[in-house]
Write a sequence for this structure.
């Protein structure tokens, strides 16, 4: 058989990063930012995220919340990502992001409101420029590219420092055109945006291997001509280094990057899901061995930075934080029915006055639907 | 597996029709997100992958545009693809392939290639789901020439209409009202008998007023009719079932008796199907009408998160108000 | 550059409005396919990249979903993006971002973020272009709560309404009737004066009949009105201009005089805007109506390739036939 | 600055293939299939494609055709691709494909009918399973994946030989989600489909460099985990080898591949375009130097396989072919107006009878619109 002579035209590598191995042992010296205080802060936030998720799932079980997506087992990604942003950066999240929301200053009561069927939960009081939780898969990647354009534009027009947009998604999202279109645009326009993929191995019931034939998710960046890195997503230090490094380059005008953070979804997809239908208890049990909180706990204790006493204090503190948030959430007055018109447009168009009046009159008359 | 003649729910009837089609037509293939081992997030495809194998019942990667587009290619080569969108709120990326290709391939090639595809999606609100999980945008698709839009409102109609949609030589959007997926049970013989497309169903006979509704709203509409009946008003309830092409003649027939009409739908009012129905009624039955066709619909707002969902949805009381407006108008007579 | 007060075409008026907005609002950015050096395939953006630089007037990669999606992100941070779709036939991949995000962001965040975006697209048929280049699917978008749909029908209205759309704090789909891009010239002072959104324009006064049309169909509708005038019938011609939200009151005002009405549009009839207009007229003016609202529209077929385009499009003769049907009905009176 | 230790996770190469250089000199031995007859056939078909395009552009200029997309300068890609398919394979073309259409047996009069505004032009008499010309960019890539699924399904169910779907697009199309979604699915489902990208450097007025930041278009396949090759698209032998090789692997159950064929659009985008608005005469002139017909002509003459006399014969023959096709096209009776209803559905729904009758009556009465 004829074999032609081919010339090498281009070559690409994908690398992998880890600081803390599955047992929580450092595999290499930690970066400067990973001070004892920083590690303790991350540890606290991961615990808080887990507590919020746990309570939210219970609230759903008792009918007080709607469908809820827990981030159980993936807390390192959210916390590391949320922590890497500066206040003026813009975060464009997907839905499995409790840790990141907490880091961005989103209130626990806002998270509960959102999943409790109340739009006010997306009116983040302390993260006024961040995008809301995005449900249609991968669409937020394009919003992030647009946000990054706006940040770049402002920087160029006004000479202010370049800020960065960071967006997150699951690995399932990387099959959707939006994800690729966003990376491609970010590449060619050199936009200051970092794409973080939470590769938790499952998209509801579809395993990573049925999602794409690629060896890594990271290599998808090669299609857009942008740099990529694969990291251990249950290692908060590795995720943090990767996001910070990518953001530093973006801030420096060097353009976008993709980070694949490998983790595992230890919970059902949402409270509406029953993962036992499609994956084995053994697989789950194995994944529990390398989950991020246990790992960081082991490292902190091995360094003498953590103890049972500290843990008890923390548990107490977090329980109080959670209770206070629940109180705030529960004591919020319900929105009036006419709220469905109030933010449709900046000003209610005349053509809708009649419908508005109808609704208000029905409410006054006590009509239920 | 569902037993013959035992009472089943609407979602079980969907499952039964899919199983029947898979068993009886080797060209039928099913695909979508989480329809395999998981059996679909509503269990509409429960057990089908186990029974018919992963070559005929497939989980796809996560991309609705892709799901719609590959169906076109499959159908062009003689397969009978049945594609599931997990929720109607995620169908929008698929509009291009549905509108530009599935609905046009036969016309474009002057009959050489065709697209006998069924696009299925759970639709409507009322299950306390998150944002985007409660959409009723059938009107967008009903405007597309070449595309049929079908909505069942009972287990038996789900079974018979889905089989008809699968056998139809052209593309059908089959919208399944998820609020009533498990609302009622009914014996549905697994006999492979299709129900006719393009035909309305008269669900209740009456002489005083015509109520038109489809999907989950049929439930509240029938309840309103019962309430009216206690007041001596007999409403005829019509379910068009195939929203496009619409069986306007059954509706006009009813108006010959009743002279007034209310259309009910969850979707936003402006440009909803109610507008088309009202427009056709006044075209075909202008002289019969004693009152304007009333539309009892969702508001022209974004479908709210679930706390305010009931404010948005047309319920029994709003349907009754619409009926009374129509009847009151009729009684006063034309000025 | 266009000279003040010299007569210009509709597409030049679009250009003039875009230039005005770029010159006067530093937050305005323009992007789309081939809008830079090429000035847009219809030259709507001719000279703008040269004048305002490639940082404000940008050619994008080829992806309409992307164009729609980045506009959402840009707008959320205070920019005023104006995005061009090269033809309306290629807008469908963008529906998801327009419907699920642009139209909902303000509501979703309870006013925290907003999407003051203008999505522009040349629209309609009649230029002998290939398939997909002749679409009129405004009804799909008009059904979307939170989205404005605006169609100009003259150079002056193109200028004034586009400026209004750009300044509007919420998303607007601005559809430019390409068949009349260069059909007529009119002096349009470049004074930055916007015309009101949400207001219909009475293009011709008349007492006998109301004709409603927008975009390119205004041309044939006015011609039909002239023809009727020679027969002693004076038609009022109304251009809603903003199709959603619709200024129904101007239409009802006209019906107070005329008592009958014809709606004209290129789009397919079923579920077209004509249905909504007819539905609202019978709701608000049931007692005024002496004849059913007539719809003179495209057929419920796929927009044909250009050999049969004129068969599909509502022309003067079909508008006249619709008018005569309405008038004849009125004369015979209600039975 | 801290620099972490990274592990190499994955590596990828993109290769380049050429047989005939810009001057038409063989850079390596030609493959077996490239016999003198085969080369002469390709040469003829490339000339015919150029003639058809030339006449179509002229017909447009005189108002007898609508907008037309010429393939001037890119004839090698179409001919090599069309030639590589067996009759039972399925072609899923984009619009700039004159050479491929001719190879597939699409009639010249069908091509003219299509661009003359007549749907009958898409009813390919001799390519009954091929998809029609696809206008919405990149959508055909997904159709091709679906076709490939059907071919694979038929093969598995009926044990018939595995056939292959081939789809083409421009390089601009590779920015659109469809393209990526199709490759990704083809990769994970190992579909027998070959994606050919005609990289003619321009997407209307947008240059390749403004389309994507990647070094090559071929590397986009890495995002889908499928093999890719970049070839000289003006070298008919290189394109043919690449497509045949990819198809052979697909036929063998080894799954999809992507081929980037580098060429240059020597004409306006379509007859509606004026390329002088956005690109220089110098760039164009340079590109003319390496166009495919001149190159193959030089090779054939250097091998003693071509002469002025043969060229004269060919010119005469092709002119006759073209005239006959024009006659057929012009003598076709117009379609009746009611054709707009005839193929909307298999059976006209009752709900449309009234509209159909209205149209028929209008036609009888001579109403024009
Ligand atoms: C466009 C769209 N299609 C389908 C869904 C339903 N859905 C919600 S989450 C999900 C799986 C997402 O998986 P992945 O991206 O891996 O994220 P994960 O949930 O695993 O974090 C699906 C299919 C959706 N939200 N949006
Ligand atoms: C979805 C879509 N958007 C826009 C267009 C208009 N359009 C036609 S061809 C073209 C450029 C295509 O460039 P490329 O893919 O490189 O193919 P080429 O024409 O260069 O062969 C554009 C933007 C279209 N046909 N479809
Ligand atoms: Mg996942
Ligand atoms: Mg190109």
């Amino acid at each position: 058989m004829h074999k032609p002579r081919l010339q090498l035209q281009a070559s690409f590598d994908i690398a992998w990063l880890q600081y803390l191995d599955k047992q929580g042992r450092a595999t290499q010296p930690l970066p400067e930012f990973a001070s004892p205080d920083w590690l303790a802060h991350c540890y606290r936030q991961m615990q808080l995220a887990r507590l919020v998720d746990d309570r939210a799932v219970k609230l759903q079980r008792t009918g007080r919340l709607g469908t809820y997506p827990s981030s159980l087992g993936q807390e390192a990604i959210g916390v590391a990502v949320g922590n890497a942003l500066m206040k003026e950066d813009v975060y464009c999240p997907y839905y499995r992001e409790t840790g990141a929301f907490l880091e961005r200053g989103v209130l626990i009561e806002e998270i509960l409101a959102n999943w409790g069927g109340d739009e006010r939960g997306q009116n983040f009081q302390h993260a006024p420029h961040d995008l809301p939780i995005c449900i249609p898969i991968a669409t937020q990647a394009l919003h992030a590219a647009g946000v990054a354009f706006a940040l770049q534009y402002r920087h160029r027009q006004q000479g202010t420092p370049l800020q960065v947009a960071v967006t997150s998604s699951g690995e399932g999202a990387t099959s959707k055109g939006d994800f690729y279109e966003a990376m491609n645009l970010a590449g060619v326009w050199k936009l200051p945006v970092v794409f973080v993929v939470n590769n938790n191995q499952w998209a509801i019931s579809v395993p990573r291997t049925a999602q794409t034939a690629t060896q890594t998710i990271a290599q998808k960046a090669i299609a857009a001509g942008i740099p990529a890195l694969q990291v251990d997503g249950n290692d908060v230090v590795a995720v943090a280094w990767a996001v910070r490094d990518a953001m530093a380059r973006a801030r420096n005008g060097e353009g976008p990057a993709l980070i694949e953070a490998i983790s595992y979804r230890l919970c059902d997809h949402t409270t509406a899901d029953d993962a036992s239908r499609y994956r084995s208890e053994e697989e789950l049990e194995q994944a529990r061995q390398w989950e991020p909180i246990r790992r960081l706990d082991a490292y902190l204790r091995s360094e003498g930075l953590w103890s049972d006493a500290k843990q008890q204090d923390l548990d107490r503190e977090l329980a109080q934080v959670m209770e206070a948030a629940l109180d705030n959430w529960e004591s919020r007055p319900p929105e009036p029915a006419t709220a469905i018109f109030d933010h449709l447009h900046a000003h209610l168009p005349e053509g809708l006055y009649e419908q508005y009046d109808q609704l208000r009159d029905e409410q006054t008359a006590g009509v239920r639907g | 597996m569902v037993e013959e003649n035992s009472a089943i729910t609407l979602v079980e009837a969907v499952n039964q029709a899919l199983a029947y089609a898979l068993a009886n037509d080797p060209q039928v293939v099913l695909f979508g997100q989480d329809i395999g081992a998981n059996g679909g997030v509503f269990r509409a495809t429960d057990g089908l992958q186990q029974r018919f194998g992963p070559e005929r019942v497939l989980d796809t990667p996560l991309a609705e545009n892709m799901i719609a587009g590959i169906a076109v290619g499959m159908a062009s080569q003689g397969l009978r693809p049945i594609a599931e969108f997990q929720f109607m709120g995620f169908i929008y990326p698929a509009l291009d392939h549905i509108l530009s290709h599935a609905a046009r391939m036969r016309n474009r090639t002057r009959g050489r290639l065709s697209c006998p595809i069924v696009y299925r999606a759970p639709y409507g609100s009322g299950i306390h789901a998150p944002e985007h999980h409660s959409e009723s945008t059938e009107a967008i698709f009903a405007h597309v020439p070449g595309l049929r839009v079908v909505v069942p409102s009972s287990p038996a109609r789900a079974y018979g209409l889905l089989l008809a949609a699968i056998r139809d030589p052209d593309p059908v959007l089959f919208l399944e009202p998820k609020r009533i997926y498990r609302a009622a049970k009914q014996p549905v013989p697994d006999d492979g008998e299709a129900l006719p497309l393009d035909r309305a169903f008269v669900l209740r006979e009456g002489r005083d007023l015509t109520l038109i509704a489809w999907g989950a709203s049929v439930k509240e509409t029938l309840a309103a009719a019962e309430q009216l009946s206690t007041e001596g008003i007999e409403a005829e309830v019509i379910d068009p079932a195939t929203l496009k092409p619409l069986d306007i003649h059954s509706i006009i027939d009813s108006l010959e008796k009743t002279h007034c009409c209310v259309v009910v739908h969850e979707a936003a009012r402006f440009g909803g199907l109610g507008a088309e129905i009202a427009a056709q009624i006044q075209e075909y039955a202008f002289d019969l009408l004693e009152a304007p066709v009333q539309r009892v619909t969702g508001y022209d707002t974004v479908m709210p998160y679930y706390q305010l969902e009931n404010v948005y949805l047309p319920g029994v009381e709003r349907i009754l108000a619409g009926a009374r407006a129509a009847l009151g108008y009729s009684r006063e007579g034309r000025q």
In short: The two ends of chain D are 74 Å apart (CA to CA). Residues 25 and 302 of chain D are 8 Å apart (CA to CA). The longest helix of chain D spans residues 36-61.
